[in-house]
Amino acid sequence: MVAEKILIHNPTGLHTRPAKNLVGEAKKFESDITVIFKGKRANLKSLIKVLKLGISQNNFIELLCDGPDEQEALAHLKNFILAMEG
Amino acid sequence: MRGEPVSNGISHGVAFLMDTEIKIINRSITADQIAQEIVRFREGRDAAAIELQKLIEKVKTEIGDDKADIFEGHLEILTSEDLDAEIVEIINEQKISAEEAARIFAESNAREMEELDDPYFRERGQDFRDIGRQLIQEISGTGNQTIDLPEDAVVVSNELSPSQTAALNLSRVRGFIFHKGGINCHAAIIARSLEVPAVILRDTDLFNAIKDGDSIYMDGFTGEIWISPDEAVINELKVKERKNQQDQNELLKLIDLPSETLDHRKIGLYANVGGLHDIQSAKKYRADGIGLFRTEFLFMETMSCPDATRQADVYRSAIEAMNGQPVLIRLLDTGADKPLPYWSLPPEDNPFLGIRGIRLLFEKEDVLRTQIRAFLAASTAGPVGMMIPMVAALRSIHQVKALIEEEKAALNRKGPDTIRLGVMIETPAAVQLIDEILDIVDFISIGTNDLTQYLLAADRGNSSMHSYYDEFHPAVFRSIAHVIRHAKKKEKLNGICGELAGKILAVPFFTGLGVDELSINPSQIPEIKHLIRHIDAREAGMLVDEVLRIPTSEGIRARLTRFLTEKALMK
């Protein structure tokens, strides 16, 4: 299992559209991917669960990847989050 | 009585009480009914998704693209695997009806969202309730009931969800009175974009005093509401309304003036429409023509393709309404990126580079032939242009021409063509082939949204491409100039549709190019006309030469901003 803390920097945070894009990216990987925010955990492959975390700009989240492709998953999702705009 | 004003305007109409409560009969089910209940849920979910897609089209055409975002979010959640899994689990575990399960799903998610700190996320709670309501309606088969609004209706409702508001026959609404909600509830936002007054009446006794059919006068500036007021009040309101009208008249005056530059060069302002309902609006703002009639909405009215008669009726009505002005209708433009609910298309890795637009129509040749027959039938009513989407090679144009000839022969139609054929210029290939394309068509229209994404290799739906997808990119501006200049040389009708056509900053550039028409949302016409009427075409022509030498988007934006600022045309 690998984990990393990431800062959400895009202005809208994980609103419906960016969250949907991120969930789509997470689904590309076999590993279990969990996002932890303010002590709450959610499966990053689930749009509704991610939305219910209410992640806004300048929040830190922790990404946890666990599975055969965990390294690639973490690297890819981290880059994706850092490149998010809007 | 007085409430909180949330949308300006003075108007009067007939109270129309809308009951928006959803009643669910709570029934438990036996273990062997579970499977059936899950089927009911999924069928209802699929039906709700179709209704939402239609609503998205309606909102885009009647209110504006940006107002559809919320419903696109709804569709995302509605069709998510999560929603499916959660509702199936509720049915399985609690052994209750699909409707009740949808209600529990919506309510529990809404509550959770409403506990969040960020106001954006708290508001999303309402979205879950709206989604739940749409689901319940479709599962129980009580959806699809069109609400028969009287003419000049003042809609009185406890509250209205976004989808309920958008589904109304908005052209009949003169005002809204709500019991709940706030200045930024979606219904209020829609009221403002419709320019009708809206008031929130939180006092229950006052709210309940309004009865169906009451004659209502309302002042959306102050929040005052009168039921059958006396003469004095009506007169006072009339005075106020007149004053208000005078301000509006400034704009109306502009409406009757031609769209031409200071040195009298005509730039046609055409309207983008999605159906007959928009034609009214195009007429209201005195559009010089219809530059883009999207036919997708017509194909979403029912769960099958409209037949030639239905299509011909719609096209003919549009042509007759425009009374001799050009009506350019685009052939059905769909693909895996925006599928029709009743066509199951194989998923593509890269739908924007796949079977869409005319490519898909060639695969569904009977649909294309039907549409061509409808054009032929409607073309007796007046000038009509048929616009081919997604052309990247001359072959597509030749193929459409051949089909038109075959259908004409089948109908025994002889004589000169009444259909004018045109092409959407939206691929880099079409830009390069513009000379040859112009030789075989009657008109062209540049679709800037697709052209930008194809030129810049930047998916416009991908939010991480945001900084790469830039309509002010020099490659986009140079391509547009190339195409328009060639079309002018060959004296073929040329236009620009797509979002860039309505961007204030781009207007001086298009004016300088001397484009024949800009096709924009009808409500944008006065604003864009105001600009054109304050620009000198020769001066703008020199600006074009300058802009075409600028190598960056930032540079182009800065130059155009300076042009407008110097003329005090920048807001």
**Rg of chain B, alpha carbons:** 26 Å
Total individual domains of chain B: 3
State the CATH topology of the largest domain in chain B: TIM Barrel
Q: Biggest interface: chains and residue counts?
A: A-B, 21 and 24 residues
- Profile the largest sheet of chain A: 4 strands, antiparallel
List the helices and strands and how they pair.
The complex is a heterodimer of chains A (86) and B (571).
Chain A: E1 2-7, H1 16-26, E2 32-37, E3 40-43, H2 47-51, E4 60-66, H3 70-83
Chain B: E1 4-7, E2 10-18, H1 34-62, H2 69-78, H3 81-94, H4 98-114, H5 119-140, E3 153-157, H6 162-167, E4 173-178, H7 186-194, E5 198-200, H8 204-209, E6 215-219, E7 224-227, H9 231-256, E8 268-273, H10 276-284, E9 290-293, H11 308-322, E10 327-330, H12 358-363, H13 365-378, E11 384-388, H14 394-410, E12 419-425, H15 428-432, H16 434-440, E13 443-447, H17 448-456, H18 474-489, E14 493-497, H19 507-513, E15 517-520, H20 525-532, H21 537-547, H22 553-566
Parallel strand pairs in B: 2-3, 3-4, 4-5, 8-9, 8-15, 9-10, 10-11, 11-12, 12-13, 13-14, 14-15
Antiparallel strand pairs in B: 1-5, 2-6, 6-7
